[in-house]
Design goal:
Number of strands: 0
Structural class: mainly alpha
Mean pLDDT: 81
Order of helices and strands: HHHHHHHHHHHHH
Largest sheet: none
CATH class: Mainly Alpha
Radius of gyration: 24 Å
CATH superfamily: MetI-like
Shape: globular
Number of domains: 1
């Protein structure tokens, strides 16, 4: 069995164990912290019998061990329970909100990769000139500002002073019911709805910038260091003697050999980017799972919180697994092992 396939199988098994551990920790913590989710649902005139019946309906009348066992069996059967605050199936809620977060996160990732890659290449081309410290200073400034601060600044500039983009939401309410799926950004070009693409993009520009700018700065810094290290290698000097320009050296030689560490770090940072959508979605009232997670915590909606944590955990694990496979694909020694 190839080494890369064996490594992938080992990581999948480890991912299942990790996800189970996350489920245990979250389940226990949610039940030992102060507060009663049922108390937030009952009306002032509810009788003790009605309260007990409601606890039984949500499976909160047994011991922690029995509650966990019932919940785990339901999860394995695809039943994530019913949201206490929204009175809806948790799996349906996740299916509605997850596509919005995934589209936002991937759009921010594409923007960050393109911008960060461009900055790194330009910074490598102008090395040892007066422009290099200027680019490094601008990049460092972008990196120092958190995503939520970028979000507030973008709202102030492009939503208040110069109202160019919508301040909240994902799409205009008048067209929201015209979609067949919840992947609005993916579905719109497939159905040739150009006006809808413009509307969705205008709603996403500010959240994408807020999430993507700090990641772009990280990518630029790491990729530039990798390119500078590659540019002094013997194979680069040999290619330079053949008359290749600096841009061709970077794009054809150095970039191919320096992209591995950048891919690894980008994958790790992408998991943090998905976690960062919680605050950014809240600021822009973006209807993703991050925004819903804050409401779930405020309302102490145990079934919804548990489902959200499992989804976030599964996303982190899948992203890290995908990054490991990409790193192996870019590394010839691992690919041919």
């Amino acid at each position: 069995m190839p080494l890369i396939l064996l490594s992938a199988l080992n990581r999948i098994a480890l991912a299942a164990v990790t996800l189970f551990g996350v489920a245990v920790v979250v389940f226990v913590l949610l039940r030992v912290v102060p507060g009663d989710p049922i108390a937030m649902m009952i009306s002032p005139g509810s009788t003790p019998e009605q309260i007990a019946q409601m606890r039984a309906n949500y499976g909160l009348d047994g011991s922690i061990l029995s509650q966990f066992w019932i919940w785990l069996k339901a999860i394995l059967l695809g039943d994530f329970g019913t949201s206490i605050s929204l009175r809806r199936n948790v799996l349906e809620l996740l299916a509605e909100r997850l596509p919005a977060t995934l589209e936002l996160a991937f759009a921010a990732l594409v923007f960050a990769v393109l911008l960060g890659g461009a900055i790194a290449i330009i910074g490598t081309l102008v090395r040892r000139t007066f422009l290099e410290p200027v680019i490094d200073t601008v990049n460092g400034t972008i990196l120092a500002v958190p995503d939520f601060v970028w979000a507030l600044a973008l709202i102030l500039v492009f939503g208040v002073f110069f109202p160019v983009f919508p301040l909240s939401g994902r799409v205009d309410p008048s067209v929201q019911n015209d979609f067949f799926t919840y992947f609005y950004l993916l579905e719109s070009p497939l159905t040739l709805r150009l006006s809808t693409i413009v509307d969705i993009s205008s709603h996403m520009i500010m959240p994408v910038l807020a999430l993507g700018l700090p990641l772009a700065a990280i990518i630029a810094r790491v990729l530039k260091e990798a390119l500078l290290e590659a540019m002094v290698q013997d194979y680069i000097l040999l290619a330079k003697l053949k008359g290749k320009s600096n841009l061709r050296l970077i794009m054809q030689e150095a970039l191919r050999n320096g992209i591995g560490p950048t891919v690894a770090l980008t994958g790790v940072q992408f998991t943090f980017l998905i976690g960062g959508t919680v605050i950014v979605e809240r600021i822009f009232a973006y209807p993703g799972i991050g925004n819903m997670a804050i409401d779930a915590v405020i309302n102490r909606d145990l079934p919804l919180i548990q489902g959200l944590v499992l989804v976030f955990g599964a996303l982190f694990i899948l992203i890290n697994l995908g990054v490991d496979l990409l790193v192996a694909a870019f590394n010839p020694r691992l690919r041919h092992a």
